[in-house]
Inverse folding.
C-alpha cells in the first residue's frame, strides 16, 4: 500500500470520481471570494454534494456498471426514487442526511486534493496553487445555484445531467483542467511523486491502447504483472515506473494469499479451540507429500525470455481447496525471489527480511524440503496466530473504563482461540479502478461497447 501511494499520489481507494476534485475546488474558491465562515462553507459543500448526487441519479437512475454511484446516492435512495429531495433534511449531518461526516465527502478527497495542489491544507476547503477557479466554475457552477434551492425535483434535473453528472466531466472545462493537472508536465510540479503519477497514467493509457481492457484492475493488472510487454513495447520500456509496478503487482498476489488463508483460518475457529486444532484443520486440506514434492508440482513461473508467467492466475482458477491454492500462490511468490531482478525484484521484496514476506516464505520452505507438507503448514498456522496476537497487542488501546481494546477478530484466552467475527479475504486494492474512473471522467479514457479506449486528448497528454 505504501508503494502504491508513491505510484499514484492524488488518487486513493475512496476517490473514484473526478468531479469531486472540481466540486471541492469550486466550493473553496466561492467561499474564499465571498468570505464565508467555516460553518457557511460547510453547509454549501454539503448541499452541493447532495445536488451532485441528485443530478447524477437523474441522469442514470440505474447507475453505470463501470463506475460507482455519486457519493451519498445510496443514503438518499428512497428520496431520489420518490422524486423529491428536501434539501435541508438531505444535507443535514447525521443519520437522516446523505452522510454523517460534517464535511461530507471532502474528508476522503482532502489528502488527494492537497497533494494535487487543488486545495491548500486547512480546516476547511481553501484554494490551492493549482486550482483553476474559472474552469471549475464553468463546469460545475450551476451546482451552487441548485444548492440554494429548498427542494430539488429529480424530474427537473435530468436535462442537467449531460453537464453536471459525475460521468460528464471529460466534456467540460473542469474535466479538461483536471486532466491537464494530473497528466501534463508542469514547471511548478516536478517532484518525484508527481512524476510517478504521470508515469503510472502513461502506463495505463498505453496498456489500454494496446490491449482489450474491460476491467482496470483485472486486465491492466495482468499486463503489469506478466509477460514481456513492459520491456518490449516502445513506450512502456522507457517508463521508470514500469518495473516498480511489476514488482508491486506480483507482490500483491502473495499479500492476497495471506489474506485468504487468514480469513479461512478465522472462519474455521468454531467455539473455542486450540491453535493445534486449528493447525490440524489446515493440514487436513493438504496432500500427503513432502515440501519438495509440493514445490515440484507448482506451475512454471518464468518464460524462456525471463518474463513472469501467470502462475498465480492459473492456481486461483484451479478447482482445489482454498488453503492448498493459496499456499501454492505463496510458494510461487517464494520462487520469484530468485527469478526477478533489478527494480522489479526490489519492489517485489519491499522491506527486506520481514515476517511473512516472500523471502521469509522461501526460507521456511527451503529448510523444510524433506519434511511433510502438513507439518510445515501447521508451523505456518502457529506463526500466523502468534503474529496476529502481537499486532493486536501493539495496537491495543485502554478504554475509559480501564478495560483493554484489541483490534482483532481472533482472540486468545488461556490457550484457547475464539473469534468475534469473520475476516475479509479480498485483495488489497492497487487503485487502478479508481485511477481509471477518474481518468475516464476527466476525458482521458472512453468507455464504448464495454471496452476502454484512449481519447485523442488522452493520447496527446501522455505523449
Amino acid at each position: 500500500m505504501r508503494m502504491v501511494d508513491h505510484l499514484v499520489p492524488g488518487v486513493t481507494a475512496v476517490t473514484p470520481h473526478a468531479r469531486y476534485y472540481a466540486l471541492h475546488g469550486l466550493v473553496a474558491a466561492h467561499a474564499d471570494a465571498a468570505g464565508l465562515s467555516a460553518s457557511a462553507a460547510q453547509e454549501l459543500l454539503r448541499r452541493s454534494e447532495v445536488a451532485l448526487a441528485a443530478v447524477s441519479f437523474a441522469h442514470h437512475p440505474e447507475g453505470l456498471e463501470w463506475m460507482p454511484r455519486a457519493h451519498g446516492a445510496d443514503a438518499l435512495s428512497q428520496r431520489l426514487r420518490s422524486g423529491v429531495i428536501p434539501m435541508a433534511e438531505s444535507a443535514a449531518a447525521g443519520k437522516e442526511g446523505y452522510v454523517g461526516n460534517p464535511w461530507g465527502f471532502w474528508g476522503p478527497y482532502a489528502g488527494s486534493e492537497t497533494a494535487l495542489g487543488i486545495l491548500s491544507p486547512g480546516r476547511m476547503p481553501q484554494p490551492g496553487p493549482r486550482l483553476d477557479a474559472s474552469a471549475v466554475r464553468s463546469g460545475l457552477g450551476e451546482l451552487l445555484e441548485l444548492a440554494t434551492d429548498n427542494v430539488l425535483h429529480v424530474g427537473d434535473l435530468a436535462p442537467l445531467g449531460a453537464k453536471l453528472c459525475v460521468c460528464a466531466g471529460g466534456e467540460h472545462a473542469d474535466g479538461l483542467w483536471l486532466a491537464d493537472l494530473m497528466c501534463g508536465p508542469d514547471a511548478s510540479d516536478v517532484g518525484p511523486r508527481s512524476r510517478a503519477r504521470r508515469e503510472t497514467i502513461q502506463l495505463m493509457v498505453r496498456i489500454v491502447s494496446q490491449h482489450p481492457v474491460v476491467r482496470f484492475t483485472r486486465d491492466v493488472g495482468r499486463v503489469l504483472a506478466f509477460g514481456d510487454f513492459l520491456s518490449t513495447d516502445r513506450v512502456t520500456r522507457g517508463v521508470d515506473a514500469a518495473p516498480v509496478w511489476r514488482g508491486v503487482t506480483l507482490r500483491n498476489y502473495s499479500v492476497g494469499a495471506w489474506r485468504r488463508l487468514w480469513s479461512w483460518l478465522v472462519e474455521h475457529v468454531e467455539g473455542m479451540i486450540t491453535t493445534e486444532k486449528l493447525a490440524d484443520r489446515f493440514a487436513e486440506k493438504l496432500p500427503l507429500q513432502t515440501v519438495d514434492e509440493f514445490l515440484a508440482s507448482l506451475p512454471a513461473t518464468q518464460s524462456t525470455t525471463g518474463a513472469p508467467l501467470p502462475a498465480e492466475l492459473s492456481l486461483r482458477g484451479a478447482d482445489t481447496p482454498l488453503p492448498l491454492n493459496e499456499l501454492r500462490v505463496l510458494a510461487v511468490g517464494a520462487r520469484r525471489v530468485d527469478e526477478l531482478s533489478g527494480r522489479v525484484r526490489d519492489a517485489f521484496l519491499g522491506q527486506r527480511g520481514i515476517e511473512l514476506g516472500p523471502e521469509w516464505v522461501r526460507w521456511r520452505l527451503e529448510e523444510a524440503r524433506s519434511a511433510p507438507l502438513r507439518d510445515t503448514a501447521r508451523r505456518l498456522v502457529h506463526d500466523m496466530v502468534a503474529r496476529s496476537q502481537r499486532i493486536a497487542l501493539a495496537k491495543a488501546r485502554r478504554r475509559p473504563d480501564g478495560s483493554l481494546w484489541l483490534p482483532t477478530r481472533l482472540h486468545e484466552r488461556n490457550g484457547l482461540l475464539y473469534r468475534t467475527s469473520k475476516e475479509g479475504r479480498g485483495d488489497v486494492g492497487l487503485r487502478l479502478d479508481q485511477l481509471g474512473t477518474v481518468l475516464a471522467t476527466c476525458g482521458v479514457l472512453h468507455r464504448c461497447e464495454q471496452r476502454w479506449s484512449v481519447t485523442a486528448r488522452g493520447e496527446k497528454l501522455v505523449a
Summary: The first strand starts at residue 84 and ends at 86. The longest helix spans residues 241-267.
